[in-house]
């Protein structure tokens, strides 16, 4: 069983990361903390396989937390994934100097967090060093897909479609014309449909008239700027949702669609 610790002073982030952690792999146990000192106290007497921590927190930042973690017996090689909202190399260098393994900049891409965490767990089990932390070098390009492969159906050996269907989030992809080209199982279930029945429908049928108008405006902003949008709350199928949008690019780098990810907002996980 993989044991993952999540540290963030914001309850919403803790809830999101905890939900995503449960789909990193089968049989995951998650411990969630809002205070670095509480997390360190728990770590003194417990095994851990991966730590996901915010960088900027009251009283102790992610670099200092990582430094103290590394000083604990048996914790010198635990993978540490640091999440920071600051696009500043200085923050990354400080965390790296303290022993961080990898970085993500918020607002996070949910798929990227799951994939990076899965890779870090595998590296930790093999006792290998992780690759250079994100943001300290040019990112490596994704491996090319086989000729004719659909990027929504192929993702490494696991299969992207299976990963998306296992996420506790409603995921859809809308093309430039406003038509749905993909919906995962959670999205379809929220609408009482099958995923294949949603392909080709317009945003109004997918989100409802009021939400569709806002969604389309957000999609156009992503298409125009090429940048992901920060998370925002909205009402949708299943109640309150925390939604993010990100561009989907083809092999040449052209944006072909917008990925919408909506996580139902539930109660904060107990620990």
From TrEMBL:
Protein name as annotated: Response regulator
CDD domains to which the protein is assigned, alphabetical: REC_RpfG-like
Entry-linked PROSITE patterns: PAS, RESPONSE_REGULATORY
InterPro entries per UniProt: Bact_response_regulator, CheY-like_superfamily, PAS, PAS-like_dom_sf, PAS_4, Sig_transdc_resp-reg_receiver
KW Phosphoprotein (keyword) present: yes
Keyword Chloroplast included in the entry's annotation: no
Keywords: Phosphoprotein
Response regulatory domain residues: 3-121
Short name of any one Pfam family annotated for the protein: Response_reg
Modified residues (4-aspartylphosphate): 54
Gene3D superfamilies xref list: 3.40.50.2300, PAS domain
Originating organism: Roseicella frigidaeris
GO biological process, one term: phosphorelay signal transduction system
Highest taxon in the source lineage: Bacteria
The organism's taxonomic lineage, starting at the top: Bacteria, Pseudomonadati, Pseudomonadota, Alphaproteobacteria, Acetobacterales
PAS domain ranges (all copies): 156-200
């Amino acid at each position: 069983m993989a044991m993952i610790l999540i540290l963030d002073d914001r309850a919403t982030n803790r809830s999101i990361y905890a939900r995503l952690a449960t789909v990193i792999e089968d049989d995951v146990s998650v411990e969630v903390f809002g205070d670095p000192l509480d997390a360190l106290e728990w770590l003194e007497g417990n095994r851990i396989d991966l730590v996901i921590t915010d960088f900027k927190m009251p009283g102790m930042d992610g670099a200092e937390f990582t430094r103290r973690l590394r000083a604990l017996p048996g914790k010198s090689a635990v993978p540490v994934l640091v999440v920071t909202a600051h696009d500043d190399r200085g923050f990354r260098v400080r965390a790296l100097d303290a022993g961080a393994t990898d970085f993500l900049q918020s607002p996070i891409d949910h798929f990227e967090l799951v994939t990076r965490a899965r890779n870090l767990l595998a590296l930790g089990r093999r006792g290998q060093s992780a690759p250079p932390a994100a943001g300290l070098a040019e990112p490596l390009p994704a491996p090319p897909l086989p000729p004719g492969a659909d990027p929504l159906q192929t993702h490494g050996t696991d299969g992207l479609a299976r990963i998306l269907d296992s996420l506790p989030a409603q995921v859809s992809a809308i093309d430039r014309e406003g038509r749905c080209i993909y919906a995962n199982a959670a999205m379809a279930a929220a609408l009482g449909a099958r995923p294949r029945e949603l392909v080709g429908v317009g945003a109004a049928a997918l989100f409802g008239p009021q939400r569709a108008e806002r969604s389309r405006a957000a999609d156009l902003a992503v298409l125009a700027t090429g940048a992901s949008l920060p998370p925002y709350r909205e009402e949708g199928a299943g109640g309150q949702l925390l939604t993010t949008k990100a561009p989907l690019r083809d092999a040449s780098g052209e944006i072909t669609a917008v990925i919408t990810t909506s996580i139902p907002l539930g109660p904060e996980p107990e620990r």
